[in-house]
Design a protein that fits this description.
The chain is mainly α. The protein has eleven helices and two strands, in the order αααααααααββαα.
C-alpha cells in the first residue's frame, strides 16, 4: 500500500483517495470484508474520475469491470494489442474484487450470524496479500498513466539505457512479487509488462532495487 500512497502523494489531485487506503490498511487483518469493499470503491473512484475528466459518461449502476475498461480506453490504451490484453485482464481482476466484496461483505447482502462469523475465513492470508497488491498495481497504473498526457509518446522519446534481458536479478525479484498475468493463451511476467508499458517506471524501480539490499540476498 505504501507504493500507492506515494503515487497519491506525488499527484495531489488524488489526495482524497487516502480515505480508502487508510481503511484498507486498517482492516486488512481485522475485517477483510471492509478492506475489500474499500478496494473496490478505490478502483471505481479512480475509473470514474478518469472517465469524467475525458467526457465519457458512465451509468450510475455501471459495473466495476465496465468502469475500468472505459477508464483504460479513456487514457488511450486501445490501439496496442499488448496493452489491450493487459487492461482487459486488470479489469477482470477488478470485477473479481467486486464479486468477492459481495460474497464476504457485511452490508452488501444479508448474512446469517454464522456467515458473519466465518466470512473472513473464506480468504486466506496469501489471497488477501494478492488482492491488496493487485489493487495497488491497478490503481497506481491508472493514476500514473492518466497523469502522463501521452505515456506511449514520452516512453518512446526516452533513450533506453537498459535492456530487459540485462536485468535478470531485478526481473526475478519483480516477478516473485507480482507473478504473471494470464490472458487466455497468453502469459506475461510482471517485469516484462512494466518494461514495455512504462519504461520510466521500470527504470525507477530497477534503480531502487539495485541501490537496496534485495539483490544481495
Amino acid at each position: 500500500m505504501e507504493r500507492l500512497k506515494k503515487v497519491i502523494e506525488q499527484y495531489g489531485r488524488w489526495s482524497e483517495l487516502t480515505i480508502y487506503t487508510d481503511r484498507i490498511e486498517a482492516h486488512t487483518s481485522t475485517d477483510f470484508s471492509h478492506a475489500i469493499e474499500n478496494a473496490k470503491a478505490l478502483l471505481e473512484t479512480i475509473g470514474r474520475e478518469i472517465c469524467n475528466s475525458k467526457g465519457l459518461e458512465l451509468e450510475a449502476t455501471a459495473s466495476i469491470n465496465n468502469i475500468l475498461k472505459r477508464a483504460f480506453s479513456a487514457i488511450g490504451y486501445t490501439s496496442s494489442s499488448l496493452v489491450t490484453q493487459i487492461s482487459s485482464a486488470l479489469a477482470t481482476i477488478g470485477q473479481n474484487i467486486g464479486e468477492l466484496r459481495n460474497d464476504i461483505g457485511t452490508t452488501s447482502h444479508g448474512k446469517s450470524l454464522e456467515e458473519l462469523k466465518e466470512r473472513n475465513n473464506k480468504v486466506d492470508e496469501l489471497t488477501k496479500e494478492f488482492l491488496v497488491d493487485t489493487t495497488v498495481i491497478v490503481a497506481s497504473f491508472l493514476i500514473r498513466t492518466y497523469e502522463n498526457e501521452n505515456p506511449r509518446t514520452k516512453t518512446e522519446a526516452v533513450e533506453a539505457e537498459l535492456f530487459y534481458t540485462d536485468n535478470e536479478p531485478f526481473n526475478d525479484f519483480w516477478d516473485d512479487l507480482y507473478g504473471e498475468f494470464k490472458m487466455g493463451d497468453y502469459s506475461f511476467p510482471a517485469s516484462e509488462i512494466l518494461f514495455n508499458v512504462d519504461y520510466k517506471a521500470y527504470d525507477t524501480e530497477q534503480k531502487a532495487f539495485s541501490e537496496g539490499d534485495e539483490w544481495k540476498e
